[in-house]
Structure formats: C-alpha cells, structure tokens
Amino acid sequence: MQWCSLNSDDPNDVARFRNIIDRRRKDLNGWVATVTLQSDDDKDYPYNERMKALSEIVNHVSRETHGDGVILFPGGWFYADKKEPCTTYNWAGKKIGELLGEIEERIFVCIGIDGRVSEYAKDQVGIAISKDGIDAMGRKFHPTAQEDGNIKPADDYLSEEGGKSRIFELNGVKYYMCVCYDTYGLG
Prior knowledge:
This protein has 3 helices and 8 strands. The chain has 187 residues and is an alpha/beta fold.
C-alpha cells in the first residue's frame, strides 16, 4: 500500500501538492498574536503613549501576518486609576476601531482596562475591538485568593459587561474572553 500517490520527480505532481498546501492555508481560520512588554511602573504610562505603542504593534503585526487574526494585549493595558473602566470604553473602541479600519484584514484587538485601583484593581475588564468598534467585553469573574472580597467580579462566566457578551466570532471561530485568572474558574 502506497501512502502518497504523488511523485516528487514529476513537475505536475509537485504543482498538485503546492495547490493542496495553498488550499489548506486558505482554509485556516486565522492567527492569534500575544503582546508581552516589560514595564517597571504602569501608572506612569499615559493613555496617549499606550495608544501610540498599540498602533505601532498592530501595524507591525498586520504587515508580518497574512489573513485575519486576533492580537491579545496585556490585562490592564489601559489604567482608569480611581475611575470605573467604563469611562474608557467608548474612547478605546473609537480609537482602536479607527486604526483597524485602515487595515484590509479583519483583526480583533483584545485589551484589558483596570479601574478603581487602590491596593487592587477593583474592576478588571477585557474588551475585544474590531474595525466595527467594541464587539465583546468581559469582567473578571474568578478572583485570586488575595483579590477575593477586594474586587468586583462578574456574577458568572457568562455575565455580560456593558450589554456585550464576552464571546466574539472571527471567520466561524468563536473566541471567549478570559481576564487574568478566569481560566481557572472554567474547570
């Protein structure tokens, strides 16, 4: 029994093989890129600098990848300090949506916004943004032992935030937004 009927010495078979690979590549549903940055003090990193860095990263990733995808930025990318993170939702959705509108591919940017910060960030929210604006939002629902009683978690793993589900879809694939330790609460 022969496992492959293609002959690597036959140019027609080589071309058939390339077509098979190209079709499979086109069938892929997208990619995910994770952003990791070193920062000594998040509080001294103003919104305009964070937005500038986000813009540079998104543009770089879009040039280096092909097709549609998701870019995951760190939790607390924007820091609402003593205010609730909802004070930042519209601004972030508009700015990032406009940036993504300049890119041909469909890209989602996921960011975290921390708010009402004292010893702990009482509010920790993840937001998925596309060129259409805010598509999904999720508040942290599974606090760490140290945060328990010190943050405002979502009621459960399916709770909406700002009227939005924490699930978004790209090319037929559904993505579920977890914030920080939420993955431990899914088990």
